[in-house]
Amino acid sequence: MNADAAHHTYAVQFDENNQEFSIVGSMRPQRAEDLAACAALFEKSLRSVKGNFYVNVKRLVRLNNIAFKVLADMLVKASGERPDLRISVITSSVVGWSTRKFATLRNVSENIVIEEYDSEFYPGQAFVEDSDIIGLLRTQTKMTWRHERNILPRHGVRPGMAVADICCGIGDFAVLFQKEFNPSRLVALDHSKPSLAYAREVASDFGVQGIEYVYGDASELLLEDNQFDFVTCRHSLQIFDRPELILQELFRICKPGGRVYVSNEKNSHCLGEPRGESIQWTYNEVAKIVAHFNHDIEIGPKSRRLMLDAGFSDVMMESFMVTNMDGDPQDFADIVEAWRDLFVGKMSSMRGDDPDFVARFRQGFDDHVFAALHPKGYAGWPIWVASGRKPL
Ligand SMILES: C[S@@+](CC[C@H](N)C(=O)[O-])C[C@H]1O[C@@H](n2cnc3c(N)ncnc32)[C@H](O)[C@@H]1O
To answer: What CATH superfamily is the domain 125-389?
Structure first.
């Protein structure tokens, strides 16, 4: 069911399988009666549910007071009539007012709970939304850009395109992209507030204008369908437990005929000499510890399958190796030291690893730094890029 009027465009739906009533869009009625159909569907849904009843307002982006009152009355009445139910209202931090507003209902009814779904929506979120990661991302992009600036045109990038960089991190790729390829529009979206604040600061420091920095959730984008000629998502599918959900969203916002470009790693293939064995052991353990937190840092070579399964055609793939010989070897060493802080300092202690393991795990990173800075040493970090076309 759809309702359309000025600023009043929403859809409601009931998914019986998941016992989920969801409202998407902008609800700004003139009168409470304008929401009669929504209320009727809610009551009908209510009659068919048992146990948990989910009311999903994650993508309800606007709501006037009339609408909030109707929804609040609906929920409170339901909780009174059905004390056997647990009514979970699912909000999103991306819609700034949402959790605060619906949280007031908790005081009214005990069986209404408010869940901000994206405050803890994947296990390792705390690691990547931490401001400590800023330095790491900065050096990584410095090292990868010299490869990607040549790779991107092979995957279809041309000046004047409308582009989105989803999971943009600190936005430095977006800045480099803008300078190199002069897009007509550039949206850079991330779910980390510290990273976005940093991105905006860098852009204003360097007088960069025209990049739209957006706070959002890549698995539930508020961007509309078929908007962008080129959509990038770099080093990020590997940090979600369900990367296919993100790919679906990238597919959706891409124009038919446009392309989606992703880059991913396979950390167990990081290498170095001398001390190759210790380095190899540690990066095999990196893959395992990351899997423990439900991420897959080994996605790189799986990208082709993921893109094809998501419905892309004309999938292109290539790999490149960032090495200590690309530029200043200290940059490579800085990246490895930041990984060490993340994987040993944070993840390993959170997993509760024993001291012998931690010492050996740490040693491999130290040896990788040694290889990177050794006058005859070689150290590498392999990356796979893949892109696919959204069919017409
Ligand atoms: C490994 S970083 C990569 C950042 C950037 N693409 C780069 O290459 O430097 C992963 C990024 O994904 C962001 N992220 C995690 N979950 C997200 C979500 N649900 N929606 C949008 N961004 C998310 C993190 O905040 C982080 O900036």
So the answer is: Vaccinia Virus protein VP39 (3.40.50.150)
Kindly list the protein residues whose Cβ atom lies closer than 6 A to any atom of ligand 1.
128-129, 137, 140-141, 167-169, 173, 190-192, 195, 217-219, 234-236, 239
Q: Is the peptide bond before 274 cis (omega within 30 degrees of 0)?
A: yes
The pLDDT tens digits for 41-84 are 999 999 999 989 999 998 888 889 999 999 999 999 999 999 99
Nearest CA to ligand 1 atom 16: 191
First and final CA of the chain: distance in angstroms?
Answer: 27
Q: Which of 16, 12, 118 is nearest to 74 (CA)?
A: 12
3-class SS of residue 35: helix
- 229-254 pLDDT tens trace: 999 999 999 888 789 999 999 999 99
User: pTM for the whole thing?
Assistant: 0.80
Fold agreement between 2-119 and 125-389? no
How much distance in Å is there from the Cα of 198 to the middle of ligand 1? 14
For the chain, which residues make up each domain, given as ranges? 2-119, 125-389
Of all atoms in ligand 1, which is nearest to the CA of residue 122?
16
CATH tag, 2-119: 3.30.750.24
